[in-house]
Design a protein that fits this description.
With 141 residues, the protein is α+β, with helices and mostly antiparallel strands. It is built from 1 helix and 9 strands. The protein has one domain: Sandwich (Immunoglobulin-like).
Length: 141
């Protein structure tokens, strides 16, 4: 019987964490406009991509290691891509907080990288849905 109780307790705890994460993800920004950005999940490195003409987009990298986003706060221009590189012994995600950041939603990673291209100005808050104390902000100018 103790094994059955432990399995039920684990499921209840996992359900509580999921419900809390979803609740937190719904809180935050009062803005309702959600951009349709490009995202990629990959395991190889990617530098920056260039637009046609004189304007080039920039690639900004955020390392995910030691239970933190580094740097936690970055500033980019419209059209720039942020790549999160996962290098930790435990899995993490990048999950947008609030309506404006709804498209920011990576798979679970412990190695590899995930990218998101920001196409509208604003402040985008995010966290690791598995470790909600891990938070960051992307400011798009």
């Amino acid at each position: 019987m103790p094994m059955v109780r432990r399995a039920i307790s684990t499921r209840v705890a996992a359900g509580f964490v999921l419900a809390t994460t979803l609740l937190l993800a719904g809180c935050g920004s009062s803005e309702t406009k959600s951009p349709a950005p490009a995202t990629t999940a990959e395991t190889s490195s990617q530098a920056s991509t260039a637009k046609s003409g004189d304007t080039k987009t920039a690639a900004v990298t955020v390392d995910v290691a030691d239970m933190k986003f580094s740097p936690a706060d970055v500033t980019v221009k419209v059209g720039d891509t942020v790549t999160w590189k996962f290098k930790d012994s435990v899995p993490h995600t990048v999950q947008g907080i609030g309506d404006k950041a709804m498209g920011i939603n990576s798979p679970i990673f412990d190695r590899g990288q995930w990218s998101y291209t920001f196409i509208a100005p604003g402040t985008y808050r995010y966290l690791c849905s598995l470790h909600p104390q891990m938070r960051g902000t992307v400011t798009v100018e």
